[in-house]
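Q: I'm writing up a methods section and want to include an example of the input and output format. Could you take the sequence below and give the corresponding predicted structure tokens, formatted cleanly so I can copy it straight into the document?
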Amino acid sequence: MTECFDWKRTYKAFHDSFPGYRQQPVIGITGNFGEKGCELAEGYFRSVLEAGATPLIIPPYEERDALVNVLSHIDGLLLSGGADLNPLFLGEEPSPTLHGVSPRRDLAELLLIRLAFNRQIPMLGICRGIQMLAAALDGSIHQDLKECLPDTPLIKHNQDMPREYASHTVKLTECSLLHTVMGTDCLAVNSFHHQGVCDPGPHLRVSATSSDGVIEAIESNEYKSIIGVQWHPECFILRDDHCMMPLFEWLADEARNYRQARTIHHHMLTLDSHCDTPMFFYKDSETADSSNAQMLRQRTDRVLVDLHKMAEGGLDASIMVAYLPQKERDEESHVAATAKADQILTQIEEMVAANCTAVDLAYTPQDLYRLKGEGKRAVMMGIENGYAVGHDVKQVEHFRKRGVVYMTLCHNGDNDICDSARGQNEHNGVSDFGAQVIREMNRTGMMVDLSHASEKSFYDALDISLTPIVCSHSSCKALCPHPRNLTDDQLSALAKAGGVAQVTFYNGFLRSEGQATILDAIEHLNHMVSVMGIEHVGIGTDFDGDGGVPGLANASELINFTRRLLRERYSLEDLRLIWGGNFLRVMDAVQQRGK
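A: Here is the clean output for your methods example:
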């Protein structure tokens, strides 16, 4: 007689033996349509399991809320093969050579890819999947290779041999991510397609081609974790051939890193100490208030920081500043500057109030932590350019009572307070009036921000201030000799005085020549840490003030910074300090003294 299977005992043994099994990254795999509905070839989930991840099949359905929700429960996305893409989704008419299409699956996957792209979720597209990546991310595809490339002598791209064997080779682009993952210049692959990528689009680049020039692989050119391949790597494992496992291991590793970063952001407060989003407020229309509110509420290309991008990038709080360009310094211009600062602050308040179910104003570090606990985003207010106070020191208290947490003493030009890094050295540092302003900022609990200040102004302010100072958006002169950047001596002096320097993502402050990327931002932060120590650094993006580089293009990509820092072996406590802990320590000290 056969003994009954004791599944409870098996479950307990499994649970006791593998206490950390829940920490495996979850890879969502898009399912195909078959005779009975959703189906998936075994190679896909076998390869994911072999790579050390948990597969989760995503059926092809069109319910958008459910699709959005599933992205909150996966750490990576694998786009499986299948039927042709409906050309109507690309604004094209169908070719006579078009094969079977699955429009319901098309719509779901196009939406999934775009949403996953916004959330920085690692993606691997296979065969149809590479074409869906190109289609969803503003590229284009060939409906049929023979028809679209009539003058090109093509190799056979739809093999008749068993799927688990290679039929042709592809050449991998040198220095590409795919080249690094696979560790070879030439790769033998299988092939089952008649469509192909025509143009990878602005977000992706070609990383492999076949001998006839057909695009066989694409990947992100924006430091996102995205690879698409035209062949079927999942088939090889069915005959215990592990030659393609590096692809799945890459996806699992990226998903594991993404999962860890997301978990950290969920449990830790994240603060961007400087953004200029109010520069893009609608000002002259009768509907400015509602337009500004919608600008924050909707995901829009108008600004780099909105509630959607904050959620996607795991950003809890942003200090939005009232920026004032330096203009004339007569009495009339000073009055106008003060009024302008008040107007912008009012617009920030109104914009936040109109979205009060999702975001609120914060005035203290305690407010930030409370709002985090309530599941809300937070906005703090700052002023960029002490020009806002004109020549009236009483305005400092006025703005502090309005909730301004810091004021940048100057911008690109000398004012009555001090000399700018881009000024004419009018005062040889901080003026007598500027000293009064700094002491009044100390008295009222407003942080002194020395980004944009000249080197002499920096040291003068350091001597005058009774509280630690901040540089809310600055980078390192040792790596990029811009007048706005801080020398190693300045960084050391700032740390010695208990202050913080917030690395910024402005291209010209990260590199003297060429395009800066997330790698440059990491290098600047690493340098700051080596000079100042981990207790004196942070992040001030300068988004919407020309800040933003590939890999850190807007608030939705800030999770990438944490992912890179984890690769750099920063600890959880290091990340807490970098993501606002240091800056808020100074804010709390300044506010406590000003009480």
